[in-house]
Amino acid sequence: MLRLDKLKSRARSFERLVGLTPEEFERLLSKLEPLWEQAHRRSLLGAGRVRRIGAGNTFKLDLSQRLFVTLLYLRQYFTMHVLGILFDLDAANVCRNIHGLLPVLEQALPAPLRSRTLQAKPDEVAGNQTKKPRKIRSLEEFLEVFPELTDVIVDGTEQPRGQPKVKKGQTPGKKAVGRPKDKKRFYSVKQGTHTLKTQVAVTPEGQVVHLSATASGRTHDMKVLKRSRLINRLPPHVRVWGDRGYTGLEKVYPERETIVPAKRPKKGELSLEQRELNRLISKVRITAENVINRMKKFRACKEFFRNEPKRHGVIWGCVAGLVNLRWQRRLLLPTT
């Protein structure tokens, strides 16, 4: 069984394993403890419980060890079976410990705002709207947390997932014998495989401020943005930067200042001025690419996604919070 105290004495190895220094781990643990106590208490008081509080089996690992297992899972993406061998637990117990702690860990971290679902109806071009967009209740919170925010860079990223299977009671599609009807929904032509897509919004300094809900790999970046509720959450003065996948953004949100590289016209060429402008835009947009690269150093966000799709959002939320924690350390900002 891995000894946490011995690993902490080797600070460099500890950071490579979980992505945090021992000091950052201890600070995170102190924030996590009261949140875990509240969440665990609520679960014990849930409806339908027969046993009194305190009865039943207890956790074999204490909270610090469970936090270490969870961070190790996010960083290295070991299977539950391997983690069970390392910590002398059954794979099912490891799974329950990790997925029970992830939502509470996201609260303890400086995680970005995260949409739980995508809008059923995407934002349309302003001229076709018949009513004003619904105001988001978290706008005030957004302004309070980021009062100096002037620019946001958006970009989409994908993670491989398993091929959809035929569910019980469903019939295969007509064109692809033996395949489910929603096979094409998750197939990304760009990646050449089935994927899950997430839209990441970052500041020019490199802080993650928003994550969209999980979308299928086939969904276009522009469609994810229009359904993510991000634009309506941003203050009016904030500029939105995007890549060529967001061409036409100024038509959907004419009241916003949007900056998107010029796209080469069909059977035409860009002028020298347009090329230079695209180069300057890319120098700003590269921050989003670097942030996504830092997130994918946590293998739970890079490798083949082995969990249920409903757990994709909370895993990315925790990883984004860990990246923000490291960002605060680099800028020497207070983490309390």
UniProtKB/TrEMBL annotation:
Ranges where the Transposase Helix-turn-helix domain occurs: 60-110
Cofactor: a divalent metal cation
Protein name: Transposase
Annotated region described as Disordered, given as residue ranges: 157-181
The organism of origin for this protein: Deinococcus aetherius
Coiled coil segments of this chain: none
InterPro entries: HARBI1_dom (IPR027806), Transposase_HTH_dom (IPR027805)
Domain DDE Tnp4: 179-324
Keywords: Metal-binding, Plasmid
Family annotation (Pfam families): DDE_Tnp_4 (PF13359), HTH_Tnp_4 (PF13613)
